[in-house]
Amino acid sequence: MEDLSRRNKEKQAHEKEILAAAEKIFCLKGYEDASMDEIAKEAQFTKRTVYQYFENKDDLYFGVVLKGFKKLFTKITEANKKEPSGYDKLERSCRSYYQFYKDNPDIIRLINYWGNVQQKTSTVGRYKNELIEFNNIMLRDIADIIEEGKTDGSIQFGLETDKTALCLMFLITGFYNQLSTTGANFMEHFSQDQEEFSSCAIDLVIKPLRRTRTFTTTRKGTA
What we know:
Layout lengths: L1 H32 L2 H8 L3 H7 L3 H24 L5 H18 L1 H8 L1 H7 L5 H27 L8 H29 L4 H13 L17
């Protein structure tokens, strides 16, 4: 039993090292131009050893993206858990996405490319399945926040929760995908501050979801 536990720990350590190496190479060269030889060299393993842990480059890429998704999800949930309403949590989540993008632009580029890789490969590997499942968890979390906002009155009642969550994820991730690839030139050309521009985009997406309370007043002396 002790030997089994030691082997499991060794396996987990090797997987972690290979994923770290792959993340570095993917961020440096992109998915298309990265090779398993380069990843193995960076991890200081033989390519044969790398293939013992990951079926192919696609599976390794999905593992790196899953790691990025989990890091992003942790940052978002930590940031919004103290917010008082569903709307506040939703807004904080979007603004936390910007901070994560600002700190990890290369990871965001990798994350936002995963749909392209998924379409190109028919491989059904461990990490691809885990990534799809985790993406659904993130989507469900957004839907739960929207439901919370509808319950506490901070988000419009009439919204279709699941569709709104999906649209919101699509719009925000699409925006930061575009920003991560062409944002520098765009900001320079139009003389825009990136943080202010991002905040404006988030407002355009988020504010229509907020429920504005209306108050009626009566003039003194009238019923």
